[in-house]
């Protein structure tokens, strides 16, 4: 259901299409007018954030897929003991999650001092403003991609004084990103 086909190799029995219009007895009709016999369909909706299990008192909201108010895409600026690991997408997940955890653990241990609530909110507003200046839509705020991801990881690692991402990792990630 992706608006632009993902340039990846799929098995012969898998194809990407835009939207299901209707179900038939033995298959489906798609938005482009084509149809296919199929037993199953994998419907990919993308990243849609929702936290219905959180109390409103937490202060976390989702507006056009932007999770607010999060400092560094991780920390609830109202209740800094609440963290969200893994919000950024279009990233190399596990290394990014690892750096987010290292950063947040350093905060919890008191090794990294957070700015005031107001300063953290201002930092998120500034990042969102920069995002808009570059012509990006709100819904892509947490979509880091290659360059933003590397900058983000190196920023977190500098704050906790751990190892920076090596250029070889960057090259490998770029290689695999271009393949898929």
TrEMBL record:
Pfam families: FMO-like. It comes from the Eukaryota. Gene3D superfamilies: FAD/NAD(P)-binding domain. InterPro entries: FAD/NAD-bd_sf (IPR036188), Flavin_mOase-like (IPR020946), FMO-like (IPR050346). SUPFAM superfamilies: FAD/NAD(P)-binding domain. GO terms for molecular function: flavin adenine dinucleotide binding; N,N-dimethylaniline monooxygenase activity; NADP binding. The keyword Oxidoreductase applies. Keywords: FAD, Flavoprotein, Oxidoreductase. Belongs to the FMO family. This is Flavin-containing monooxygenase. It comes from Cherax quadricarinatus (Australian red claw crayfish). The lineage of its organism: Eukaryota, Metazoa, Ecdysozoa, Arthropoda, Crustacea.
């Amino acid at each position: 259901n992706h608006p632009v086909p993902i340039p990846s190799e799929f098995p012969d029995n898998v194809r990407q299409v835009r939207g299901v219009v209707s179900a038939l007895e033995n298959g489906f009709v798609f938005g482009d007018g084509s149809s296919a016999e199929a037993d199953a369909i994998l419907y990919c909706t993308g990243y849609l954030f929702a936290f219905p299990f959180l109390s409103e008192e937490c202060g976390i909201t989702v507006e056009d897929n932007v999770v607010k108010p999060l400092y560094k895409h991780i920390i609830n600026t109202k209740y800094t003991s609440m963290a969200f690991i893994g919000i950024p997408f279009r990233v190399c997940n596990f290394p990014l999650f690892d750096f987010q955890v290292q950063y947040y653990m350093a905060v919890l241990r008191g090794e990294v001092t957070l700015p005031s609530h107001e300063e953290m909110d201002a930092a998120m507003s500034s990042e969102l403003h920069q995002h808009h200046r570059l012509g990006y839509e709100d819904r892509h705020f947490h979509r880091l991609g290659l360059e933003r991801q590397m900058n983000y990881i190196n920023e977190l690692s500098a704050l906790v004084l751990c190892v920076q991402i090596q250029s070889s990792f960057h090259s490998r990630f770029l290689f695999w990103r271009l393949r898929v």
